[in-house]
TrEMBL record:
Annotated family: Belongs to the short-chain dehydrogenases/reductases (SDR) family.
Pfam families named among the record's database cross-references: adh_short
InterPro entries documented for this protein: NAD(P)-bd_dom_sf (IPR036291), Sc_DH/Rdtase_CS (IPR020904), SDR (IPR050259), SDR_fam (IPR002347)
Gene: yvrD
Protein name: Putative oxidoreductase YvrD
Organism phylogeny: Bacteria, Bacillati, Chloroflexota, Ktedonobacteria, Ktedonobacterales
Keyword ATP-binding: no
Protein backbone atom coordinates (compact mmCIF):
# COMPACT_ATOMS: atom_id res chain seq x y z
CA UNK A 1 0.00 0.00 0.00
CA UNK A 2 1.29 3.45 -0.96
CA UNK A 3 0.80 5.64 2.10
CA UNK A 4 1.54 8.83 0.18
CA UNK A 5 4.28 10.01 2.52
CA UNK A 6 7.24 10.31 0.13
CA UNK A 7 6.92 14.07 -0.31
CA UNK A 8 6.06 14.85 3.31
CA UNK A 9 8.28 16.47 5.93
CA UNK A 10 7.92 14.92 9.37
CA UNK A 11 9.08 16.26 12.75
CA UNK A 12 9.35 13.67 15.53
CA UNK A 13 10.19 14.73 19.09
CA UNK A 14 11.83 12.49 21.66
CA UNK A 15 13.31 10.55 18.77
CA UNK A 16 16.71 9.33 19.98
CA UNK A 17 15.41 6.04 21.38
CA UNK A 18 12.38 3.93 22.14
CA UNK A 19 9.05 4.76 20.50
CA UNK A 20 10.28 8.02 18.98
CA UNK A 21 13.25 6.34 17.31
CA UNK A 22 10.99 3.63 15.89
CA UNK A 23 8.58 6.27 14.55
CA UNK A 24 11.41 8.17 12.83
CA UNK A 25 12.79 4.97 11.32
CA UNK A 26 9.39 3.94 9.98
CA UNK A 27 8.72 7.32 8.35
CA UNK A 28 12.20 7.20 6.80
CA UNK A 29 11.42 3.80 5.28
CA UNK A 30 8.30 5.35 3.73
CA UNK A 31 10.50 7.93 2.02
CA UNK A 32 9.55 10.96 4.10
CA UNK A 33 11.98 13.72 4.99
CA UNK A 34 12.40 13.29 8.75
CA UNK A 35 13.60 15.73 11.40
CA UNK A 36 14.44 14.07 14.70
CA UNK A 37 14.52 15.94 17.99
CA UNK A 38 16.01 14.89 21.33
CA UNK A 39 17.79 16.54 24.26
CA UNK A 40 21.09 14.68 24.01
CA UNK A 41 23.08 15.77 20.91
CA UNK A 42 25.36 12.73 20.94
CA UNK A 43 22.54 10.18 21.16
CA UNK A 44 20.60 12.09 18.52
CA UNK A 45 23.49 12.16 16.05
CA UNK A 46 24.04 8.41 16.42
CA UNK A 47 20.41 7.70 15.53
CA UNK A 48 20.38 10.20 12.66
CA UNK A 49 23.54 8.66 11.19
CA UNK A 50 21.99 5.20 11.40
CA UNK A 51 18.74 6.21 9.69
CA UNK A 52 20.60 8.13 6.96
CA UNK A 53 21.85 4.81 5.63
CA UNK A 54 18.36 4.17 4.26
CA UNK A 55 17.21 7.77 3.64
CA UNK A 56 19.50 10.77 3.22
CA UNK A 57 16.69 13.28 3.88
CA UNK A 58 17.09 12.88 7.63
CA UNK A 59 18.45 15.41 10.10
CA UNK A 60 18.50 16.07 13.83
CA UNK A 61 17.92 19.13 16.00
CA UNK A 62 18.82 18.90 19.69
CA UNK A 63 16.53 20.82 22.06
CA UNK A 64 15.08 20.44 25.55
CA UNK A 65 11.35 20.84 25.00
CA UNK A 66 10.58 21.39 28.66
CA UNK A 67 11.95 24.91 28.03
CA UNK A 68 9.73 27.34 26.08
CA UNK A 69 12.66 29.04 24.32
CA UNK A 70 13.95 25.67 23.13
CA UNK A 71 10.57 24.81 21.61
CA UNK A 72 10.62 28.04 19.60
CA UNK A 73 14.18 27.36 18.46
CA UNK A 74 13.28 23.84 17.34
CA UNK A 75 10.30 25.07 15.31
CA UNK A 76 12.36 27.77 13.59
CA UNK A 77 15.23 25.42 12.75
CA UNK A 78 12.92 22.64 11.55
CA UNK A 79 11.07 24.97 9.19
CA UNK A 80 14.34 26.40 7.90
CA UNK A 81 15.67 22.89 7.23
CA UNK A 82 13.05 21.77 4.68
CA UNK A 83 10.74 24.78 4.30
CA UNK A 84 7.65 22.93 5.53
CA UNK A 85 6.30 20.64 8.22
CA UNK A 86 3.50 18.33 7.10
CA UNK A 87 3.47 15.88 10.00
CA UNK A 88 4.18 16.65 13.66
CA UNK A 89 4.59 13.75 16.08
CA UNK A 90 4.70 14.90 19.69
CA UNK A 91 6.37 11.95 21.32
CA UNK A 92 8.60 13.60 23.91
CA UNK A 93 7.46 12.89 27.44
CA UNK A 94 7.53 10.39 30.26
CA UNK A 95 8.42 10.42 33.90
CA UNK A 96 11.64 9.80 35.77
CA UNK A 97 9.86 8.58 38.87
CA UNK A 98 7.51 5.70 39.67
CA UNK A 99 5.69 7.18 42.66
CA UNK A 100 2.42 6.80 44.52
CA UNK A 101 0.15 9.79 45.08
CA UNK A 102 1.68 10.28 48.53
CA UNK A 103 5.23 10.08 47.19
CA UNK A 104 4.81 12.42 44.20
CA UNK A 105 5.88 15.95 45.11
CA UNK A 106 4.68 19.26 43.70
CA UNK A 107 7.90 19.32 41.70
CA UNK A 108 7.09 15.90 40.19
CA UNK A 109 3.66 17.17 39.11
CA UNK A 110 5.07 20.40 37.67
CA UNK A 111 7.87 18.62 35.81
CA UNK A 112 5.42 16.09 34.34
CA UNK A 113 3.11 18.86 33.15
CA UNK A 114 5.93 20.86 31.57
CA UNK A 115 7.40 17.86 29.78
CA UNK A 116 4.24 16.03 28.73
CA UNK A 117 1.72 18.81 28.16
CA UNK A 118 3.32 22.23 27.72
CA UNK A 119 5.96 20.94 25.30
CA UNK A 120 3.15 19.59 23.10
CA UNK A 121 1.03 22.75 23.39
CA UNK A 122 3.95 25.03 22.56
CA UNK A 123 5.15 23.06 19.56
CA UNK A 124 1.67 22.74 18.08
CA UNK A 125 1.21 26.49 18.57
CA UNK A 126 4.42 27.09 16.60
CA UNK A 127 3.71 24.63 13.76
CA UNK A 128 -0.04 25.02 13.17
CA UNK A 129 0.25 28.34 11.25
CA UNK A 130 2.49 26.58 8.71
CA UNK A 131 0.00 23.74 8.31
CA UNK A 132 -2.83 26.24 7.90
CA UNK A 133 -0.98 27.90 5.00
CA UNK A 134 -0.42 24.47 3.43
CA UNK A 135 -4.07 23.54 4.09
CA UNK A 136 -2.71 20.11 4.99
CA UNK A 137 -1.31 18.73 8.19
CA UNK A 138 -1.20 15.78 10.52
CA UNK A 139 -0.61 16.09 14.26
CA UNK A 140 -0.19 12.87 16.22
CA UNK A 141 0.25 13.16 19.97
CA UNK A 142 1.61 10.19 21.90
CA UNK A 143 -0.53 9.66 24.99
CA UNK A 144 -0.76 6.45 27.03
CA UNK A 145 -3.31 3.84 28.01
CA UNK A 146 -2.87 5.24 31.52
CA UNK A 147 -4.56 8.41 30.29
CA UNK A 148 -7.76 6.38 29.98
CA UNK A 149 -7.18 3.62 32.53
CA UNK A 150 -4.72 4.96 35.13
CA UNK A 151 -2.43 2.90 37.32
CA UNK A 152 -2.54 2.97 41.13
CA UNK A 153 0.89 4.63 40.88
CA UNK A 154 2.25 7.55 38.81
CA UNK A 155 -0.87 9.76 38.93
CA UNK A 156 1.30 12.74 37.98
CA UNK A 157 2.09 10.97 34.68
CA UNK A 158 -1.37 9.56 33.91
CA UNK A 159 -3.06 12.91 34.48
CA UNK A 160 -0.86 14.58 31.87
CA UNK A 161 -1.62 11.83 29.35
CA UNK A 162 -5.35 12.30 29.91
CA UNK A 163 -4.74 15.96 29.12
CA UNK A 164 -3.05 15.02 25.84
CA UNK A 165 -6.05 12.92 24.78
CA UNK A 166 -8.41 15.78 25.62
CA UNK A 167 -6.22 18.34 23.85
CA UNK A 168 -6.08 16.21 20.71
CA UNK A 169 -9.87 15.95 20.56
CA UNK A 170 -10.27 19.70 21.03
CA UNK A 171 -7.74 20.58 18.33
CA UNK A 172 -9.25 18.08 15.90
CA UNK A 173 -12.43 20.16 15.96
CA UNK A 174 -10.62 23.49 15.88
CA UNK A 175 -8.50 22.75 12.80
CA UNK A 176 -10.54 20.30 10.71
CA UNK A 177 -11.64 23.03 8.31
CA UNK A 178 -7.96 23.88 7.69
CA UNK A 179 -7.23 20.34 6.50
CA UNK A 180 -5.33 19.48 9.68
CA UNK A 181 -6.10 16.11 11.25
CA UNK A 182 -5.26 15.66 14.93
CA UNK A 183 -5.18 12.30 16.70
CA UNK A 184 -3.60 10.70 19.73
CA UNK A 185 -2.07 7.25 20.11
CA UNK A 186 -2.22 5.46 23.46
CA UNK A 187 0.30 2.64 23.83
CA UNK A 188 0.23 0.21 26.72
CA UNK A 189 3.52 -0.51 28.46
CA UNK A 190 6.12 -0.51 25.69
CA UNK A 191 9.51 -2.10 26.22
CA UNK A 192 11.90 0.80 25.67
CA UNK A 193 15.29 1.65 27.22
CA UNK A 194 13.60 4.14 29.57
CA UNK A 195 11.06 1.57 30.79
CA UNK A 196 13.85 -0.95 31.28
CA UNK A 197 15.80 1.58 33.38
CA UNK A 198 12.77 2.36 35.56
CA UNK A 199 11.88 -1.31 35.99
CA UNK A 200 15.47 -2.24 36.83
CA UNK A 201 15.51 0.36 39.61
CA UNK A 202 12.16 -0.81 40.98
CA UNK A 203 13.18 -4.49 40.83
CA UNK A 204 16.35 -3.69 42.76
CA UNK A 205 14.38 -1.82 45.44
CA UNK A 206 11.99 -4.76 45.82
CA UNK A 207 14.72 -7.40 45.82
CA UNK A 208 13.45 -9.24 42.74
CA UNK A 209 14.85 -9.82 39.27
CA UNK A 210 13.97 -7.54 36.37
CA UNK A 211 11.97 -10.32 34.68
CA UNK A 212 10.03 -11.06 37.87
CA UNK A 213 9.11 -7.40 38.25
CA UNK A 214 8.17 -7.15 34.57
CA UNK A 215 5.87 -10.18 34.71
CA UNK A 216 4.20 -8.89 37.87
CA UNK A 217 3.56 -5.54 36.19
CA UNK A 218 2.07 -7.24 33.11
CA UNK A 219 -0.26 -9.32 35.28
CA UNK A 220 -1.40 -6.27 37.25
CA UNK A 221 -2.09 -4.36 34.03
CA UNK A 222 -4.02 -7.36 32.68
CA UNK A 223 -2.55 -7.03 29.20
CA UNK A 224 -4.60 -9.52 27.18
CA UNK A 225 -1.66 -10.35 24.89
CA UNK A 226 0.48 -11.01 27.98
CA UNK A 227 3.51 -8.97 26.88
CA UNK A 228 4.63 -5.37 26.48
CA UNK A 229 4.26 -3.58 23.17
CA UNK A 230 7.24 -3.25 20.85
CA UNK A 231 8.17 0.29 19.75
CA UNK A 232 7.72 -0.72 16.11
CA UNK A 233 4.09 -1.65 16.76
CA UNK A 234 3.35 1.84 18.05
CA UNK A 235 5.25 3.40 15.15
CA UNK A 236 3.12 1.57 12.59
CA UNK A 237 -0.05 3.09 14.06
CA UNK A 238 1.45 6.59 14.01
CA UNK A 239 2.59 6.35 10.39
CA UNK A 240 -0.84 5.08 9.34
CA UNK A 241 -2.57 8.06 10.98
CA UNK A 242 -0.20 10.41 9.13
CA UNK A 243 -0.93 8.82 5.77
CA UNK A 244 -3.48 9.45 3.03
CA UNK A 245 -5.03 6.11 3.99
CA UNK A 246 -6.27 7.76 7.21
CA UNK A 247 -7.66 10.90 5.55
CA UNK A 248 -11.08 10.56 7.26
CA UNK A 249 -9.73 9.94 10.76
CA UNK A 250 -9.44 12.84 13.18
CA UNK A 251 -10.16 13.29 16.87
CA UNK A 252 -9.57 9.64 17.65
CA UNK A 253 -7.45 8.10 20.38
CA UNK A 254 -5.94 4.99 18.82
CA UNK A 255 -5.20 2.35 21.45
CA UNK A 256 -2.12 0.22 20.86
CA UNK A 257 -2.60 -1.53 24.16
CA UNK A 258 -2.69 -5.28 23.58
CA UNK A 259 -6.22 -5.38 24.99
CA UNK A 260 -5.35 -3.68 28.28
CA UNK A 261 -8.08 -1.04 28.51
CA UNK A 262 -11.28 -2.61 29.81
CA UNK A 263 -13.75 -0.01 28.54
CA UNK A 264 -15.42 -0.25 25.15
Amino acid sequence: MDLGLQEKVVLVTGASRGIGKAIAETFAREGSAVILNARNPQELERVVSSIRRQNDRVSGIAADLSQASEVERLAEKALARFGAIHVLVNNVGGTNKIATFEEATDEDWINAFHLNVLSTVRLIRAIVPVMQKQHWGRIINIASESGTQPYPVMPHYATTKAAIINLSKSLSKAYASAGILVNSVSPAMTWTPLVEELFTAQASEQGVTLEEYRQTFIRELRIALDRPARPEEVATAVVYLASEAASFITGTNMRVDGGTIASI
